[in-house]
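Researcher: Let's try something more involved. This one mixes different molecule types, so please make sure each is placed in the same coordinate frame as the others.
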Amino acid sequence: MDKRIVLAQGDITRQDTAAIVNAANSSLLGGGGVDGAIHAAGGPAILAECKQIVARQGRCPVGGAVLTTGGNLKARYVIHTVGPVWRGGRHNEDKLLADAYTNCLALALEHHIRSIAFPSISTGAYRFPIERAAPLALSTVAAFLAERDQLDQVRFVLFGERDFSIYRAAYERLTQEPS
Ligand code: AR6
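Model: All components are placed in one shared frame. Result:
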């Protein structure tokens, strides 16, 4: 596994990476979960910029990503992405989840961001099974990093102990796989 990928247990709003990722919805107007926590901690400047983006380019598609200020957060930027809602696994959910991670990383590179923290996208309100999401998230990020050296760290910040141990197990499994 790429050593630039790091797992941590905690609150994404407290991370000191240059950018943190928000698991948003297409309206970009806020919500519960990570989205609510990020807007609450970052203050109104984030929502104001989200509204400008929606006025300019419309709602954010599933798998897409947009960048705003980090407002009052330690992170300078928030990258808002929209993961897929789990609908049984046969509605392109895997591809859309991978797109969400990849588009966040591509946007980070465009803005010369060298460190980024992800939550576990789609595995809360959107009900994507975390046992399936974890290896997909990790392998998608590893594949992206394998071809690029502009990023120093990609941190996965897992909120609960159970989420953290599922990601850790997936990380170890991917590490053992011959590459
Ligand atoms: N830091 C890190 N992870 C967190 C935090 C936090 N502060 N809070 C929750 N999590 P969710 P989704 C974890 O529901 O499934 C919103 O209403 C949580 O335990 O935040 O992509 C949006 O507006 C879970 O593992 O995002 C959308 O409508 C993970 O973050 C919808 O929810 C993702 O859970 C998006 O749903």
